[in-house]
Amino acid sequence: MDSLAAQIKSVAMNVGYQKCGIIKISDMSGYEEKLNERVGRIPETKPFYERLYRFAHLQDLYPWAKSIVICISSYGKYHVPEHLQGLIGKAYLFDSRRDEQSKELQDSLKFEEYMQGMGLKTEAERKFGVTALRWAAIKAGLGVVRRNNFFYTESGSWIHLEAWLIDQELESIEIPTVKGCPEHCNLCVKSCPTASLLEPYTMNPSSCISFLTTFGGRDLPHEKFNVQMGGWVYGCDVCQDVCPMNKNRWNATEEFPSLDELSQYISLAKILAMDYDFLEQIIQSKFWYINKEDVWKWKANAINAMVNNYKEQYKESIYAACNDNNVKVREMAEWAIEKLNL
Hints:
The chain has 2 domains: 3-166, no CATH class; 194-235 and 265-340, no CATH class. The chain contains 16 helices and 8 strands. The chain has helices at residues 3-15, 31-41, 46-49, 58-61, 90-93, 103-117, 133-139, 187-191, 209-212, 238-241, 259-263, 268-273, 276-286, 296-308, 315-321, 327-340; strands at 19-24, 67-74, 122-123, 144-145, 151-152, 159-166, 197-199, 202-203. Helix 1 packs antiparallel against helix 6 and helix 15 (315-321) packs across helix 16. It starts with a helix and ends with a helix.
């Protein structure tokens, strides 16, 4: 291993990352073939995957870039508020990408500053990644992608991936020690509520509950999978929760900054009663996959979850939503009343 590569990796581990690898930019070339395979299996996903092809040609955008530094941190150490289990996906509860209070973001900034202090030019994109993170992590030998499409290390899939482009050609590749999926295991595919996970390593993003509760699902009364969405309001963990390779991988020893306090404001009824200013300023800043203009989706998703797991106590909240300021929420409430014969 090059001494500079070894130094970068050492700093990453000292800062707090679980793993760090470095690959040459040319290692991304095979990513295009992988995307073509995905689109070939499910042609209707082409519009979704088209924006990702740029990751196979990074030097078109960053002609100075020569290598990729890929790091992994684990969030399976945090306490999950019990009442948010099955309501909000865990990756979103512990999302540190824009959370200035989180140690993970501070570690990321320190690491980047250190690399720049070494004379390296860097480029990162913390929201969605400057490159295809899972592919880069595979090429660096940091773990494996399992049949549910998630990347796994020894900590299971409860991890965050992060990458930087740098202007030096370096390499630090590990030999993966993580075992493959158990033979004949198909739990993730069988358990996917919407059959978005059609077969191992293959999914239709547009029918994934995480998509429907965030970027999609804008007409829930007519949504094909509104029943299958169950009680989820933001995200979904089903295919990760059922995975035997995630068993005993969550070890809650720490509290995520401010999450316990924020969680006290979140329940299905409380979401429906939320002031839109609160949704825009507090909730959206934490759960930013729904933008400020679309925070009404929180209420629509909450009503859908109420319908799927109806309790008599929800009746008052649903009727109150008929007078909501947003027409989409009012339509959703009226749909719920008709569907439940309230």
